[in-house]
Amino acid sequence: MPPVVVIMMGFAFLCGLILLWAGLRGRRLNDHPVCRQCAFDLDGIYPESVTCPECGAGLKREGSVRVGARKRLTGVAALGLLFAFLPSAPLGVVGYAALTGSDVNAYLPVGVLLWSAQRATPAGSERIANELIRRAQARQLSQTQYASAAEFGLKLQADPNSPWSEAWGNFLNAARLDGTLTPAGLDAFERQSALLKATTREKAASGASLPVTIALDQARVGSGDIISHSLSLDGATLDGKKVAAKVSGSGAMGTLGGGAFQIVVNGVNVSGGPGDDRQLGVITAAGSRVPLGVFGTGPKVTALVDLPGDLTPGPHTIELQLSQESSAGRGLLGFPSFATGAGSPLTLRTTVEIVPVEQLVAPIAPTPDMDAKLAAMLRPGNITLDEAGFGQPNDGPNNARVSLRVKDLPVPLACDVLLRVGNDEWKIGEFHTGSDATSATSGFSSSSFSYQVSVNGVVTSQSSSEDSREIVGPAKGLSATRADLVLRPRPEVALKTADLTKYYNGEIVIPGVPISRVEVPSIFREMRDLQKSQQERLRQWQNQRRPRGR
């Protein structure tokens, strides 16, 4: 029971006693002498008489006579009795629980428990939920009480301003197992299990492509729950006006333990996801008893919002329109259930302040020694030229891929990545050393986990590293055996990160990098063609399921 409630009941009890005393004492009617023993009016008798003619009490003793006849106030006395009686039982229970060390919630009715839970501290709310679980297990709840408590738990979960305890999630799970929680209630529980928030850079420049990160703010689940939330991007607005937005980050591909899963055959990536460019990914809400890093797909996903080039300086509001599909028991082991566009609508808001670009990222002056040092540290073993694998950006023939080091570089980088042979150049993507990589839009991808399957004598291997990042992009017409790798600085690339405030402003040229050409075996060409066909069917099915006007 909240302490403030106990204090209020104690105050009411005290006020009741005072009103009861005042009502019984009554209101004084006159200033006549009155026998204190029987309240007989002694006007005209006292002080001559030594005894009360009514009751015979002696009148010469001190205090035997009082001044003024009084009339009892029955209404005031009754009100005082009511005020004193009502809180006496709860106060007695609180006192008994305090003396014996037992939980006071065990003696309170369900209605009082639910009323107290609305005003309780997080610890107090948890104790109330545990008491309801105990009563449910002991079959001490009527069906009406059970349903009312489950409905209250769902309302508590839906209110982001109310403190949440996993004990309430456990109670709702018990209600589900007992058949008290309806299918509609279960859907609401899953949908409300993740409180998401959108964040971005505090400041940005007009015309930039701004990364907006969607992350798990609170997991409102039971201790053993794991509920995946598949998100797809429907659109974005800036100050109420529609702007272009696209998927970034890990995209639709599932992850295992926070890393990407990749199948490489003879140097060719043949893995990929369902291929819907609206799919942001999956965020998992898990309870405290779920092992961290085993289930789910990481704590956040990212969308890129294209800011108009004519924005005025100052704060602006960004809204992301999303579709959210929630499911318990799916999305495990890195293979999530992807949103189909028919999920529940969700709108997330964040703000950004528009300032001149020179206030956001400052150039670091280049030097010949730093150019040479960076070229040596970043030089890759080779550039791979292959047919595009499953689910890769810029799907088409002659994709070039190269891995670049990001760890322990002496300066931050933000640049375009180009291949150069003579006077011909191919831009294959962008590279930076900040966070929130934008693989879906720039051909840039990163992974903390990789896996290779051996085919035709290639040894199966796996690795876990965040030391390098891979850039993938089209290089149609590239037929040379060597190419210069050019990293050309561009401040707009730094603006796609959440943390870069400086960038090295020198062009880094790594000459004569070998090119290895790999062709996809025919069986994987057939698999890729089949996947494309399945993707097209999936898009058609999604378009049929989407509500009109969306």
Structure write-up:
It contains 12 helices and 30 strands. With 550 residues, it is of the alpha+beta class. The protein has 5 domains: 1-26 and 74-97; 32-71, no CATH class; 104-191; 194-357; 362-519, no CATH class. The strands form 9 sheets. Strands 23-22-28-30-20-21-27-24 form an 8-stranded mixed beta sheet. A hairpin with an 8-residue loop joins strand 25 and strand 26 (461-463). Helix 1 (3-25) packs antiparallel against helix 2, helix 4 (110-117) runs antiparallel to helix 5 (122-137) and helix 5 runs parallel beside helix 7. 35% of the residues are buried.
The overall strand count is: 30
Radius of gyration: 37 Å
Secondary-structure class: alpha+beta
Judging from the principal axes of the Cα atoms, what is the shape?
Answer: elongated
From the N-terminal CA to the C-terminal CA, the straight-line distance is 48 Å
Number of domains: 5
Features:
single chain, 550 residues, alpha+beta, eight-stranded mixed β-sheet, 12 helices, 30 strands
